[in-house]
Amino acid sequence: MLKIPDHQVAGHEAGAGKLGPLVDDSGRFYKPLQSGKRGAEEAAFYESFSSNTKVPEHIRKYFPTYYGTKVMKASTGVEHPHIVLQDLASTRVNPSIMDIKIDSRTWGPEASDAYIAKCLERDRESTSVTLGFRLSGLQVFINDESGFYKPNRDFIHKIGPDDVRVNLRKFVSSNPSEKLDTVPDCSLGSSVYGGTNGILAQFLPAKGDKLHDIYPTYTSHDQSMFINGFPCKNPSNISTYDFKNLLLSQKAFQLSKVGEMSRSRCNRLLSYFNMLSSVISDYNSTTAANIANPNTAAPQKETRSCVSTDVHVNVEFKKL
Ligand SMILES: Nc1ncnc2c1ncn2[C@@H]1O[C@H](COP(=O)(O)OP(=O)(O)OP(=O)(O)O)[C@@H](O)[C@H]1O
Ligand SMILES: O=P(O)(O)O[C@@H]1[C@H](O)[C@H](O)[C@@H](OP(=O)(O)O)[C@H](OP(=O)(O)O)[C@H]1O
Question: Which of 58, 82, 117, 172 could form a disulfide with 189 if both were Cys (CB 3.0 to 4.6 A apart)?
Answer without folding.
Answer: 172
